[in-house]
Structures are given as structure tokens and as C-alpha cells.
Amino acid sequence: MNSSRAILYERFVFKHLGERPTRQLFGSNIHVLGNASRVKINSVEFIKSSDGIKDCPMDGFPEVAFVGRSNVGKSSLVNLLMERKSLALVSKKPGKTQLINHFLVNKRWYLVDLPGYGFASAPKTLCVKWNEFTKDYFLKRKTLVMVVQLIDSSIPVQQIDIDCATWLKQHNIPSTLAFTKCDRKKKKRKTGGKHPVDNVVEFLQQMRLVTTQTYPWILTSCVTGQGRDELMMHIEEFRNYWHS
Ligand code: GDP
Fold it and tell me: pTM of this prediction?
């Protein structure tokens, strides 16, 4: 992906490239147009699982990819965004963990469910395979508009999340950080537990050490619904902009 798209993304997310009035989304640093409204989901269809980009749909619809560590809350967030109770994420089915899964949303764009990274008990070869597989997708998929990287805000900062975010940035791939589980209560002090917001602040501080660019981020919770409408507006606007 060339650097111009990443630069455009930053300008778009923070300044909106024009004179039109914008507003900052609640619980995030992202701006949308003042008249942006709630995105309704009329249809979501599972299209296919692919084991490489050669196999992915070729109809040219723009796509937004979701990625994160296993157990980050990806299925829950996707269901929340899609207003579905249980849109089965194929990536969770045994034997399908290494596939790229395409869902067609409102017959206009693809939500792409990518395999989770950082399996605690996985052999090293599996992690290496994840790297090759998803990196290939990120670098070569022409219709990829943006990536939503999910970060679990209920646990301390994980180096693997920092590494993934840094890698996306270094390769000029437009990406937004969606912090999940922001409703989780502070754990007992003796266990070293922190409030989700403290973990978010720490994550963003650590990101600042590796990049001077500002990162779009948004807080979400599947329990309270926080961030659902905001993240969808952000996705919808950028997808529209890129497509027009
Ligand atoms: P995935 O493996 O990334 O698809 O994660 P899941 O969506 O299956 O969620 C993993 C666990 O985190 C489950 O026990 C969920 O109930 C829980 N979880 C997911 N999202 C949230 C959230 O927003 N708040 C809280 N409190 N728990 C969540």
C-alpha cells in the first residue's frame, strides 16, 4: 500500500480535508462530519473463507478488516456493529482459524474477519504462519480500505499489540485502534489490576514512543454498547470517501 493513502487517512480522520463542520466522536479522537448519522445494517451475508488473497472475492467491493489477539472480543464487537446476536465468525470454528473470512454488509462493503494473533498455547510455527498469511493480505489486497485493530483494555498493555500496531503504521496501512471491554471494572489493587482507561492511556503513551503520528482510537464495550454507532460512522465515512 502506498504512503499517500495512509497520509490521506490521517488527514481525513482528524481534519476531514475540508471546510465542512465536523464533530469529535464521543470516547475517541476521531472526527466525522457534523451531519453523520447512525448507520443501519440492512443485510450481512457470509460470502466465503479464503486461505490466501488469490482466493478472496474479486468483485471489487471495499473492505474493512478486523484483527486482534484471540479473546480480544472480536466476535462480540462484530456482532454489536452488525446488530446481530450471533453472527458466527467462521474464524472461530476448528480448522478454520487460519482463513480470511468475507462478510458482505448492506451489499456494499466487506467486513473481513482475520485470524487472531498471539495464541498463548500455539506452537511457534502457527504464529509464523499467521504472520506470513496476514501480512500478505495487508500488503497486497488492493481493495483493503482500513484495518480496525482490536485491543483489550481490561488487561495491561501487551507487546504483541504494540508490535502489530507499529507494523501496520510502518507499512502505511490505514488503521484505527478499537479498545474493547471498556466497561470492565477496576480489579482489586493487590492483583495489580488497572481501570480500562488507565490501560488505554498507557497503550497510547507507548505508541507515542514508536511513532510521532497520531493514531485514531475509539473506546468500545459490548456490554454497554459504547462506541458502536461511533465506530460505524467512522467506518462508513472513510469507506464512502475512499470509494467516491
Ligand atoms: P474473540 O475470541 O476475540 O472473538 O472474543 P469474544 O467475543 O468471544 O469474547 C471473549 C470474551 O470476552 C468473552 O467471554 C466475552 O463475553 C468477553 N467480552 C467481549 N467483549 C466484551 C465487552 O465489551 N465487555 C466485557 N465485560 N466482556 C467482553
Answer: 0.90
